[in-house]
TrEMBL record:
The keyword Hydrolase applies. This is Mannan endo-1,4-beta-mannosidase. It catalyses: Random hydrolysis of (1->4)-beta-D-mannosidic linkages in mannans, galactomannans and glucomannans. It comes from Rhabdobacter roseus. GO terms for cellular component: extracellular region.
């Protein structure tokens, strides 16, 4: 009897540990070794650090485009961002030749980032596949496409064809070591707002969850894409965990949870404490569920506040003991004199950005050591 009770006690202690260990892995049981390593290393690094990211950082910047190994961040600090944001926006709704060119340019960009040791995250500003209006919702033009794309919908086969384009691309991105490049795929972001056709006013909770689950399942299980991590990121229209998870598809369908928040960090108001509490909701849920967490989009257009990097952004991320894999600011437009979110040489926020860069909490590409390897 004593042996039986001892064995039962051991089993009771081991089962939660096994469940927790199982959680701390990608949702794809067949994820490539490099993808599993990226997941594991981001989780480890987030205990003490956060990677800095910039959207379209190496594709173009303030007043330039298409120059090899250039980014505005590198021009300022000597290092590229640790995370480079790209987009699948050009993979549909265009001519076959335009799509082919976009796929190849994106493939090269992602491979170059991997070869340097950096990380790629992919957003998807998906042009409405059943109506005009592009990826934004436009009254009297846009159709609520989600109901058309899910299984049983009129455009379901069209959606599968678009996903096959993404799947083919995913199989084509191989680094100099011959391995498939892992990417963090972040589809249908800011779904709690109404500005995109997949937003909350344009589909039911059940429709959105069905779209998410089918997207992951078709890429992973039907198309055998095993180098994606899947990131779930609403905008900042929540204050509680229940609100944050309103359209959550379930732990078995998500690798990373995040938040996009421009409003609380200067665009609409300076509410650093509010932003910090929302980040805490994201980070706390990630820790409880065994997921990664990230500040998936933020920034202040034109950065008119010369101390924004440490006085606002870093303060929001460090008010609480958070575990955030990365923070990503939005793009620097090629032509616009005002649409930019990272500094360039001569910008008034450069001195403060260098303090942000030098802080031990933030990591840039030069700081990453073998993030796709098993040992750190």
């Amino acid at each position: 009897m004593k042996k039986y009770l001892l064995g039962l006690l051991v089993l009771t202690l081991l089962v939660p540990h096994a469940t927790w260990a199982q959680k701390r892995k990608p949702i794809d049981a067949q994820a490539t070794p490099e993808t599993r390593a990226l997941y594991k290393n981001l989780r480890k690094l987030s205990k003490r650090h956060t990677l800095f990211g910039h959207q379209h950082a190496t594709e173009y910047g303030h007043g330039w485009a298409g120059e090899p190994d250039r980014s505005d961040v590198k021009s300022v600090t000597g290092s590229h961002p640790a995370v480079i944001g790209v987009d699948f926006s050009g993979f549909s709704g265009r001519s076959p030749e335009a799509i082919r060119q976009d796929r190849e340019a994106l493939r090269q960009n992602v491979v170059d980032t991997y070869n340097r040791g950096g990380v790629t995250t992919v957003a998807w500003h998906f042009p409405n596949p059943v109506s005009g209006g592009g990826f934004y919702w436009k009254d009297s033009v846009s159709l609520p496409a989600v109901r058309y794309l899910i299984p049983g919908g009129q455009a379901h086969e069209t959606y599968k064809e678009i996903l096959r384009t993404i799947g083919d691309w995913a199989h084509s991105v191989r680094g100099a070591d011959g391995q498939l490049v892992p990417v963090i795929f972040r589809p249908y972001h800011e779904f709690d707002g109404g500005w995109f056709w997949w937003g909350k006013p344009h589909c039911t909770r059940e429709e959105f969850i069905a779209l998410w689950r089918f997207t992951v399942s078709y890429l992973r299980d039907s198309l055998q894409v095993h180098n994606f991590l899947y990131a779930f990121s609403p905008d900042n229209n929540f204050h509680t965990q229940a609100e944050f998870l309103e359209r959550y598809p379930g732990d078995e369908w998500v690798d990373m949870v995040g938040m996009d928040n421009y409003a609380d960090l200067g665009r609409d108001r300076y509410a650093v404490d509010t932003a910090a509490l929302k980040l805490r909701v994201v980070s706390d849920y990630a820790r409880k569920a065994g997921k990664l967490a990230a500040f998936t989009e933020t920034g202040l257009e034109s950065i008119p506040d010369s101390t924004w990097w440490t006085g606002t952004l870093l303060k929001a991320m460090r008010t609480h003991r958070l575990r955030l894999a990365y923070v990503l600011v939005w793009r620097n437009d090629i032509r616009s004199p005002t649409h930019y979110y990272a500094p360039f040489p001569g910008h008034l926020s450069v001195p403060n950005f260098m303090k942000f860069y030098d802080d031990r909490y933030t990591l840039f590409e030069k700081d990453l050591k073998n993030i796709y390897g098993k040992k750190r």
